[in-house]
Write a structure and sequence with these properties.
2 copies of one chain form a homodimer. The first copy, chain A, has 2 domains: about 160 residues, Ribosomal Protein S5, domain 2; about 100 residues, Alpha-Beta Plaits, CATH 3.30.70.890. Helices cover about 35% and strands about 30% of the residues of chain A. The first copy, chain A, contains 9 helices and 12 strands. In chain A, strands 1, 2, 3, 4, 5, 6, 7 and 12 form an 8-stranded mixed sheet that branches. In chain A, strands 9-10-8-11 form a 4-stranded antiparallel sheet. In chain A, helix 2 packs across helix 4. At the A-B interface, helix 2, helix 3, strand 7 and strand 12 of A face helix 2, helix 3, strand 7 and strand 12 of B.
Chain lengths: ~280, ~280
Amino acid sequence: MVPEVARVSVPGHVTGCFSVHRDPDPQIAGSRGAGITLTDGATVVVDRTGSRDLELDGTKTTMASVEHVLATLDVEPAVQVETAVPVGAGFGISGAVALGVALGANAVYACGHTENDLVAIAHAAEVEASTGLGDVVAQARGGAPIRREPGAPPHGTLDGIPAGGRIEYVTFGELSTAAVIGGDTGAINDAGAAALRTILDDPTLSAFMSASRTFAREAALLTPSVERAIEHVVDAGGEATMAMLGDTVVALGTGLSDAGYEPAACSIAHAGVQIEAGSGYFS
Amino acid sequence: MVPEVARVSVPGHVTGCFSVHRDPDPQIAGSRGAGITLTDGATVVVDRTGSRDLELDGTKTTMASVEHVLATLDVEPAVQVETAVPVGAGFGISGAVALGVALGANAVYACGHTENDLVAIAHAAEVEASTGLGDVVAQARGGAPIRREPGAPPHGTLDGIPAGGRIEYVTFGELSTAAVIGGDTGAINDAGAAALRTILDDPTLSAFMSASRTFAREAALLTPSVERAIEHVVDAGGEATMAMLGDTVVALGTGLSDAGYEPAACSIAHAGVQIEAGSGYFS
């Protein structure tokens, strides 16, 4: 029995370091790098009985990544999204919504795709919308993903840092992903490759944070607010880095609280994207 | 700071259909097939301050897969395992313990491995112990894993059925995995390849159950108790199949209850193996 409505939970994803890999095929294009998925992300409800529409936290909007996914699947559902984190601030919400819509639409229209198919569709949508290069594959996996090879399945290769725990974050504002990844990425790619080597040599959260800080500085992506906050956390004995690409700082444990900030808190997500009960659960 | 004790949760894993792929390299050997991971699995506590020992549900024992993992990592911790399901009954507990010990030992001895490294070590240990060919890679992933290509990372390739929900099961007794996968697997491999094609054409839990039933019959692996129970569930309008390799039947939703059995119940696991809080969480 095919359900009318599917509810999909997608973790947020903060990239700490990355290098850009362009390719004419959007399933092969992507990024290498490392990040952490967060229990604070997005919930996506896909309803095939509603009229074609996208509501983000109660407000009608459009998202290019979602348009691409719906065009690929050739379906026109009503989509409602609730986010636990700000959009445009480095939490990968455009990727989360693309991925959630892909899994939800597959369930309610019985499209017959595997998870890898749906991840590839959402990844390509993100790349074509210039809103991200590695969030979707990370959000499909959960944990602390290392993107060893760029692109969607079967092209990309993921690994992970075997660790988890509490994460704190503070957002100072938005940054444009398209402006950065569409520009000259020479310095980013050199710094990103070096950071990835460091993390693969020492796959711990502490090394991830430290290598990502170096990356942010060498790639000249630090904003003044984030640079100051990182300094405060490190001075207080903690570990913090910048969320790529947002004016956002993330810290391990109570790093931001200890430094006198009033952060939001969540955890590294154990699970990747998941369809929830009551939504084509046995489809 | 390296913790003294790590606690790792590992889902159970029921294979519905499989084909055997032998190779001299235990990281390349494995199986193709499909299965479901279960919230009922094993919890593994690894303690580097204790003396070298393995306790399974309070009883001292030895497990060949664990010996292999500890030898590879060259460490000698105390290991305590609690299981939610019977051992030797098709729930992949030997794989779960091998994987849990690998992640736990990596955390408390700061071995510096990535998740893929640890999955490969545990997979090879299972293969060398002849206790399984595909449980470890599935348990690392969670969900309803499709093993498209056999072996550990970076050799194997996983996909998934985008679905979930309640699972019921009844165990009638044990079966020996080593006796089956060490014997003539010609009929198994033909039936397993056909079942996998069916599931990839229609990646739903319903098709998984039906293709796995056909596999069990064609591979001549059905036990009388399981055959009877599957018939009862299907007659009552449900979906059930056999857990490979155990004298165990698994059903979607309330399939076994509806057929008059008194089953245990759990859910398809959203997450794969995970290190829990208080156990090197930020390592």
